[in-house]
Amino acid sequence: MGGGAQTPALTALLCLGLCRVPGDGAQAGTLPKPSIWADPGPLVAIGSPVTLWCQGSLQAEVYHMYTESGRHPWEARPQQDSRHKASFSVITSMSSHDTGQYCCVYWTLLGHSQPSDPLTLVVTGMFPAPSLSAQPSPVVASGENVSLSCGSDEAGTAHLLKEGGAGPLHSLEARYSHGAGLWQATFLLGPVDSTQRGIYRCYRADTNKPHVWSLPSDPLQLEVSGGPEPSSPSHPQPGSPTAPAPEDHSLENLIRIGVAGLVLLGIGLLLADAWYSHKRTRAAGQQ
To answer: Which value, to the nearest 10 degrees, does the dihedral of the CA atoms of residues 12, 15, 16, 19 take?
Structure first.
């Protein structure tokens, strides 16, 4: 991987909410933008490795990865078995210096693509874990409200995540209060439904370092009772609308009737054959 390789048309990159690559004339950015993702994910524990992927076109000759800090781009060639994507193992030990936004572009014989949407990398484990609690209870009825409070000894920004969710839950009603020596961010959820049940964790970040997060809080299991649930089998009484229908055994009965019919047909054919044989024998004897 040629870390210092550059082309005249890609001498800088600005990632200010939207990545922008300096153009090279009429062909600049005319190709569709690639997609970018992190493996195993964009939240990376301190000291852990992460691989960045860029997926573009089958005609891609080379891929470049950029950061918002303006560092030189990394270069990668397409995978041998799949020319439409490339991997960048540029971070072997995650630190606060590796956080921020990343973008990628690809080059073909026609020029370079539009830049990908920015990918934000966050380092976790830099501070002690906050606490997470639910009020009035982690068990709430469907349609009611519940608040999740993320508390810490230090001031900062709170991030609430749901296991399996797409990203941090940004609540417009999150409010901060400083009382009893605890800095607390409260996220209001509700009216809740069954889709909001699950495992939640929260993180704390310094206000001036938004991509440097603490250890995660202990998991909080939110249960939502009531509301629509998957139907479960009941115990119907005979004659009720949900009782097993007679058709449950109709196939077996049809098979039995069919077998009996074949047996009777066979017996009938044997009797008919015997009757005709006997008739022919008597006719021959009278001659």
So the answer is: 100
90 and 177 assigned to the same domain: no
* CATH at residue 139: 2.60.40.10
Closest CA to 42 of 224, 158, 166: 166
In a domain, 273, yes or no: no
Whether 272 maps to a domain, the answer reads: no
Give the max Cα distance, the chain.
127
Q: Which residues span the domain enclosing 152?
A: 131-225
Quick one: 140 and 65 in the same domain?
no
The pTM of this model reads 0.67
Digits of tens for pLDDT over the chain (287 positions)?
Answer: 333 333 333 333 333 334 555 444 334 557 899 999 999 999 999 999 999 999 998 888 999 999 876 666 898 988 766 668 999 988 999 999 999 999 999 999 989 999 999 999 999 999 999 999 999 999 999 999 999 999 888 888 899 999 887 677 665 445 566 666 678 888 988 899 999 999 999 999 988 899 999 999 999 999 998 866 533 434 333 333 333 333 344 445 556 676 667 767 777 777 777 767 776 766 666 65
